[in-house]
Write a structure and sequence with these properties.
312 residues; 15 helices
């Protein structure tokens, strides 16, 4: 009996370790995609594109690319969509057009130091709090301490200082916090209702395609996209539409399905450090010693928060 119990325990621990490794790999990919689209959003804005332009590219291309997935689901999984239509509507509002406009819009009001802290800190902290309220996912001392270390690391990565706070940046910061909160609640709903990651991605992208893109075309005539150089247009189409529009949602949703929303909420904090490395060749920003130290601290805090042993 004891041998059987020990064997079952060993198998359980091995399974937990494998699940954590898979979740960490998906989380690292999600953070890398988040870093990539953030850097290239600044790159595109510096070359004449606006927040609405980037949002249209993100959801317009992703919505078209994932349309076959949604059509297949309508044929084979119609009841899954119809029975949970309120949930699908909610996730579309949380991770769709409002999130995109808030994130891209805030970039036009805040310095890069604020963009490195506020949205990702909000995702981590609000993910933990909302998960505790909605899913009764207990906030352990380990999780809270890990996230506190992560936020401290983010401040080091950003090099944020008091002089950077103005009325304009405060508005942008509020937009970042709102975007991070929407994203955190999106993750909680995914786990609560056991939504399929790929189907959720297709629903969100398509909903933005049919709601936001027509309004964008009517209001702007896509003038910003037409006036952009071919290099800027096709680069942003690839990064924002194909990679970010489909990859960000899917990898985060997949990570939530593996790790749960509280653990998954910590991983976006990796994005600023990775963005600092990506920005070196793209934007010419060489990461300083504090940014590198901050990235190391973020990783340490993330590992501490995520690898806590679950008690049955």
């Amino acid at each position: 009996m004891n041998n059987t119990t020990l064997t079952a325990s060993a198998v359980s621990q091995t399974g937990e370790a494998a699940r954590l490794a898979t979740g960490f790999a998906v989380g690292l990919l999600a953070a890398s995609i988040g870093a990539l689209y953030t850097v290239y959003a600044r790159w595109g804005i510096a070359r004449g594109l606006s927040s609405p332009d980037l949002t249209a590219l993100r959801f317009g291309i992703a919505g078209l690319a994932l349309l076959p997935v949604l059509l297949t689901a309508l044929i084979k999984q119609r009841t899954v969509l119809s029975k949970k239509w309120r949930v699908w509507l909610a996730v579309s509002m949380l991770a769709g057009t409002p999130f995109g406009l808030l994130m891209f819009g805030a970039l036009q009001f805040t310095p890069s130091s604020h963009a490195a802290v506020f949205p990702f800190a909000a995702m981590s902290v609000m993910g933990m709090l909302i998960g505790a309220l909605v899913l009764r996912d207990r906030i352990t001392h380990r999780k809270a301490s890990g996230i506190a270390v992560v936020v401290f690391g983010l401040v080091l990565v950003s090099g944020i200082d008091q002089a950077s706070f103005t009325n304009q940046t405060l508005m942008g910061d509020a937009m970042f916090i709102a975007a991070g909160t929407l994203w955190a609640y999106f993750g909680v709903l995914l786990r609560k209702h056991s939504l399929d990651p790929l189907l959720a991605t297709s629903v969100i992208a398509f909903s933005a395609l049919v709601t936001y893109v027509p309004v964008y075309l009517w209001a702007t005539g896509a003038q910003g996209l037409f006036e952009a150089s071919s290099e800027v247009f096709w680069t942003e189409a690839l990064i924002q539409g194909v990679i970010a529009g489909t990859g960000t949602l899917f990898t985060y949703a997949k990570m939530v399905s593996i790790l749960g929303p509280t653990r998954a909420a910590v991983f976006p904090a990796l994005a600023p450090g990775i963005a600092a490395l990506i920005a070196w060749p793209i934007l010419g920003h060489k990461p300083g010693s504090f940014e590198i130290l901050g990235l190391i601290i973020v990783i340490a805090g993330l590992l501490f928060a995520v690898t806590g042993v679950r008690k049955s």
